[in-house]
Sequence to fold (163 residues):
Amino acid sequence: MFTIRKTTEEDIPLVLDIFAYARQFMARTGNPNQWINGYPTREHLLQDMTEGNSYVCLDSEGELVGTFYFKIGEEPTYARIYEGEWLDCEPYGVAHRIASSGKQKGIALYCLDWCFRQCGNMRVDTHRENLVMQSILQKMGYKRCGIIYLLNGAERIAFQKNS
Fold:
């Protein structure tokens, strides 16, 4: 149904279009404050690609329909968690910047499931107003663990799922 691969230079314009669509979608669904001021930018995408952590999701026709960041390794902003605790202290994977083109349903679910299959211990965070992502995470069995703060001080709700 879907295929995941690393993002290539040729994908950049489409990924940026998907980010723009996702910003509009979040604003329409009650989350206008998470991806603001053009975030994520081309520079974010290029950095993710340089680090080898940017992925795209292709449908059965080969059309790019989603994008996300994935790495196995520590996330500095996850070192401290407030109002709760992580499920464990084992090595984990991280997913960020999950977005779809809106052309097909289930892309975020598929991408998160793919990440979990790569690393059976995943941590994710999302904005308090991002009820769509919170619903997806809960549907997939992620547990709300507490609050983390990004480097810029912004609060996020932290979730984890392990095997």
Summary: DSSP finds four helices and seven strands in the chain. Residues 3-162 form a domain with the Aminopeptidase fold (CATH 3.40.630.30).
